[in-house]
Amino acid sequence: MPYFQPNQEAFNFLKHMILVGGNVDNPWGKDDFLHYVTHLDKQGKSDDWMFDSFAFWHFKSPKGGYLYSDVNIGTTKNGEGNFYAVPAPNPGNLADWEAIIDWYFMPDVFADALNQAINAGIETLGSPKHKRNLIITIPYPGPLQSKFGTIDGAPLNFSVQGQNLQHATEARLVACKWFINRVIERFSQQNYEHLHLLGFYWTFETIHRSWDIDDHWLLKELYQYIEQQGKKFFWIPFYSSYNIHQLDNYQDYYFHSAFLQPNYMFYKDFTGVKDAAKAAEERNAGVEMEFYTANNESMAEKAERLKRFDCYLEGGILHKYMKESAIAWFDGGKALYRIYHGSDEKEREYYDKIYQFVNGSYTLS
């Protein structure tokens, strides 16, 4: 079975999808996006198109509620040492979910800023063949949320407090459907000239079921609902035997497209990207490229960060995913902007290396 193929018409020709996130006090503007929509030369001029798809996601809403599934209460990051994940303690409610939608569709930031950046690229490069894709993250309906809010006259409780698991899961589904409908409605109202709403992204990096939560049932229902709306559903799981098993037939039940994280950037004991690339290729999944800047990372591999990322780039050639697979990209939020404007010349080179990888011209050194 091949990798998840790039340039499929059914996915509006998606090839390279960048995760657009960060802190809620640091929105993305036109200039931020311009460094991703196009490749900038050293004089700051756009000389080619770059990323074609943009997935918006945030840990928290502007009102403070968590939109992500869990938090780490340990003392280390990335699963090493004292790493301990627990459900998000302040899961977002209806007001939080509304707030993130409002934020994404405000003037001059996020979707509007992305549309402006594309328009700026067109002024220099001419129109691209296809509209750029927008993917919006569905907030995770946290199991600690017992007072989400009222939709269609019904108060929603995501927890098993005072009800059984099926009722809790059905409430989570109602909220997710509301979010999907609201995003589609808001997007259609804006009439962005250069954007196509391709679908939705699920951020929890595994598919979980326990006594008090059932993501399996929820995702199966969401998959069908999103398909009925003419949209696509995306997932980027971390590398583990359980997640690889979930990828075996993921397109039959859960997601239209998935990208497997190699996680070589983050774990001491990982020896490269080969195993993850092979697992993805065997399951019609894509590969995620994972890049971090030097800012504020506490991972043990920080000193060899660029060397490890070289392995991802080289793997694209050795394992053929640079040209044969659609690719998702994680850079921690505005990393390419920072390295482009940074003083570290060696790190600055990676802006151009990533561009070369995106356009398929990267070569082994």
The gist of it:
The protein contains 12 helices and 14 strands. With 365 residues, the protein is α/β, with parallel strands linked by helices.
What string, H for helix and E for strand, traces the elements in order?
EHEEEEEHHEEEHEHEHHEHEHHEHH
N-to-C CA distance: 29 Å
Shape: globular
DSSP helical segment count: 12
Instruction: Tell me, rounded to a whole number, the average pLDDT.
Output: 94
Q: Major β-sheet, in short?
A: 8 strands, parallel, barrel
* Low-confidence segments: none
The CATH architecture can be named as Alpha-Beta Barrel
Helical content band: 25-40%
Number of strands: 14
Summed up, the domain count is 1
Beta-strand percent range: 15-25%
Return the CATH topology: TIM Barrel
Strand order of the largest sheet: 1-4-7-10-11-12-13-14
What is the CATH domain class?
Alpha Beta
| Class by SSE composition | alpha/beta
C-alpha Rg (nearest Å): 20 Å
Organism: Heyndrickxia oleronia
InterPro entries: DUF4855 (IPR032329)
Pfam family, one: DUF4855
Protein name: DUF4855 domain-containing protein
Present the secondary structure layout.
Blueprint: E1 16-20, H1 30-37, E2 38-40, E3 46-49, E4 53-56, E5 70-72, E6 85-87, H2 94-104, H3 110-125, E7 132-137, E8 149-151, E9 154-156, H4 165-190, E10 195-202, H5 215-228, E11 232-235, H6 241-247, H7 250-253, E12 257-260, H8 274-281, E13 286-290, H9 305-318, H10 321-324, E14 327-330, H11 335-341, H12 345-358
Parallel strand pairs: 1-4, 1-14, 4-7, 7-10, 10-11, 11-12, 12-13, 13-14
Antiparallel strand pairs: 2-3, 5-6, 8-9
